[in-house]
């Protein structure tokens, strides 16, 4: 039997907890839940400059999207961008961490050198790298000049611009991922390495048999952040290429920005946002139901 | 031998990583007539900085960014402390459902909801206001999870002792939990401040006046106002003005920054 006193205490505890959560919930509902629902709804409407009053058109926006060459271009670009940045930044950050963990001389400077791009805003990075890539005046061109070489127009050539972006993002992200690996390395017990040394196991085998497997959780974790970032990082496009030339550097989030705020096609912008949300939810599902379980119950 | 080559390679890589920064600093301080010459000299000037500062309203941009960064963190401090306490120490009905709701913010960050959130802001009549820049970030699931972890490490005995003394749960939170969680608040603060100092797309979309623009948007508009290639000295000086505070902070408190960003992974 639950007494009335106990029930009243329970009721007060619940009310207290919900009061504590109320401020956060207010903003979460207003700026996460409601916008997601709003995107789903508006994606079923025609709402652009020609239609002041949104009208219901079912899935027309989605079928129009499926026929839109730019949309497929942007999806393809995003895939290449992810493929170009995720595995390479993981490899690079792992190398950085292994080095920054062991190095004796100038340890602080080395870590600073690798990490500082993390605290520089993407928009400033866009400015700096625009300066690096510009033909004639740019740093790369000026570096090649004494050798009698003229570099290509990195940002103006459709086949090259994505590579230029990928290199820049590697520079931006590798040091950030490095700190996760540094933390991971700290967690590996020194005894494992000592007993391997006693047994005379070579450095290469130690890496593949001890370090790499034990860093697996970090690697999976970093992959998820890197993948998510490949959808989120677009600020530099605004300053460097505006998605050009011929949409060769355009990415999904930037395309949403253009569709919404340059073309004012609100229905389409909502449909694109919905696609983005689906991508991110798939990524989260992968993390929570797939990879996470594998790591913990290994 | 292999090891030495490997180490040499990594030192070179670290040097390469510094090149963009060194090049930026170099160009920003170099007299214009020398900016495009390849001759080496130690000529030094501050004219680009004064020129930039006087030709665009950077003092307003600075003030705006400071207000935004401080405002966001002040409100986050409150919302995050309260919610984290509920998750860490109170058993209540619907806990797992609310937990999922918080996770949703991490899975679908405000960064990608630019268009629907623009509509929300328009409906609230907050377009082109500093409050509008800040408000989507007032709740932070990342902060809640970080603080919840911290609160859970605080011994329950302290809690009980305080309640024996007649403290309410509310007082327990303010007198025990928050003061003892300094390091977690520092971590959260550094990540939050860096994020909002650097945020660009959202403030770009919702502001259209100098009075409300933050530094990043001001920098982008300033840089776009020049013909390509012509004004590198000014653009690099302006870039320095924007990135310097965080960069200096990082150089001074390297360890704290790196430790804080380790937590930011769950964002």
- Strands of the biggest beta sheet of chain A: in what spatial order? 1-2
N-to-C SSE series of chain B?
Answer: HHHHHHHHHHHHHHH
Could you tell me the mean pLDDT of chain A?
A: 89
Which sheet architecture does the biggest sheet of chain B show? none
Write down the CATH topology of chain A: MetI-like fold
Question: What percentage of amino acids of chain B are in beta strands?
Answer: under 5%
Compute the gyration radius of chain B: what is it? Answer: 23 Å
Tally of separate helices of chain A: 13
Shape of chain B: globular
Coarse structural class of chain B: mainly alpha
Return the structural class of chain A: mainly alpha
Helix content of chain A: over 70%
Q: Kindly, what is the distance between the CA atoms of the first and last residues of chain A, rounded to a whole number of angstroms?
A: 44 Å
Pfam family, one (chain B): BPD_transp_1
Organism (chain B): Paenibacillus soyae
Protein name (chain B): Carbohydrate ABC transporter permease
Domain ABC transmembrane type-1 (chain B): 62-253
List key phrases describing it:
heterodimer, A: 298 residues, mainly alpha, MetI-like fold, two-stranded antiparallel sheet, 13 helices, 2 strands, B: mainly alpha, 2 domains
């Amino acid at each position: 039997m639950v007494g009335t006193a106990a029930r009243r205490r329970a009721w007060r505890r619940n009310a207290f907890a919900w009061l504590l959560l109320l401020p956060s919930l207010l903003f979460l509902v207003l700026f996460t839940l409601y916008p997601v629902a709003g995107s789903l709804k508006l994606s079923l409407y025609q709402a652009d400059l020609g239609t002041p009053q949104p009208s219901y058109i079912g899935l027309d926006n989605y079928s129009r999207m499926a026929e839109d060459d730019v949309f497929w271009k942007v999806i393809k670009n995003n895939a290449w961008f992810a493929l170009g940045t995720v595995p390479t930044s993981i490899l690079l950050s792992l190398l950085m961490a292994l080095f920054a963990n062991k190095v004796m001389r100038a340890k602080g400077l080395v870590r600073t050198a690798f990490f500082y791009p993390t605290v520089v805003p993407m928009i400033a990075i866009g400015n700096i790298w625009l300066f690096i890539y510009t033909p004639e005046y740019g740093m790369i061109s000026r570096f090649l000049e004494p050798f009698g070489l003229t570099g290509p127009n990195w940002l103006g050539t459709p086949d090259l611009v994505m590579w230029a972006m990928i290199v820049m993002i590697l520079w931006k992200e590798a040091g950030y991922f490095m700190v996760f690996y540094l933390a991971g390395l700290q967690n590996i017990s020194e005894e494992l390495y000592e007993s391997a040394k006693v047994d005379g196991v070579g450095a290469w085998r130690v890496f593949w048999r001890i370090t790499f497997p034990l860093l697996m959780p970090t690697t999976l974790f970093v992959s998820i952040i890197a993948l998510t970032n490949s959808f989120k990082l677009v600020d530099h496009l605004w300053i460097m290429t505006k998605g050009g030339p011929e949409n060769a550097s355009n990415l999904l989030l930037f395309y949403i920005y253009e569709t919404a705020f340059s073309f004012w096609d609100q229905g389409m912008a909502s449909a694109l946002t919905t696609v983005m949300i689906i991508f991110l939810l798939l990524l989260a599902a992968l993390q929570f139901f797939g990879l996470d379980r594998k790591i913990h119950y290994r | 031998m292999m090891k030495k080559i490997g180490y040499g390679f990594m030192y070179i890589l670290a040097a390469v990583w510094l090149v963009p920064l060194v090049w930026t600093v170099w160009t920003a301080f170099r007299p214009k007539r020398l900016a495009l010459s390849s001759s080496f000299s130690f000529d030094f000037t501050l004219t680009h900085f004064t020129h930039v500062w006087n030709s665009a309203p950077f003092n307003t941009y600075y003030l705006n960014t400071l207000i935004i960064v401080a405002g966001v963190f002040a409100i986050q401090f409150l919302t995050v402390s309260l919610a984290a306490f509920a998750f860490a120490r109170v058993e209540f009905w619907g806990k797992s459902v609310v937990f999922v709701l918080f996770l949703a913010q991490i899975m679908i960050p405000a960064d990608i909801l630019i268009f629907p959130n623009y509509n929300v802001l328009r409906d609230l009549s907050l377009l082109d206001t500093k409050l509008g820049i800040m408000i989507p970030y007032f709740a932070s699931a990342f902060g809640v999870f970080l603080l919840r972890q911290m609160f859970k490490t605080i011994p329950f005995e302290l809690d009980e002792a305080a309640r024996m003394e007649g403290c309410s749960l509310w007082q327990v939170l303010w007198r025990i939990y928050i003061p003892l969680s300094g390091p977690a608040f520092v971590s959260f603060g550094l990540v939050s401040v860096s994020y909002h100092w650097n945020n660009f797309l959202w403030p770009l979309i919702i502001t259209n006046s100098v009075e409300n623009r933050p530094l990043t948007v001001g920098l982008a508009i300033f840089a776009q106002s020049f013909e390509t290639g012509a004004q590198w000295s000014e653009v690099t000086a302006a870039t320095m003005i924007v990135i310097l505070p965080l960069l200096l902070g990082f150089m001074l408190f390297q360890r704290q920054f790196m430790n804080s960003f380790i937590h930011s992974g769950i964002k």
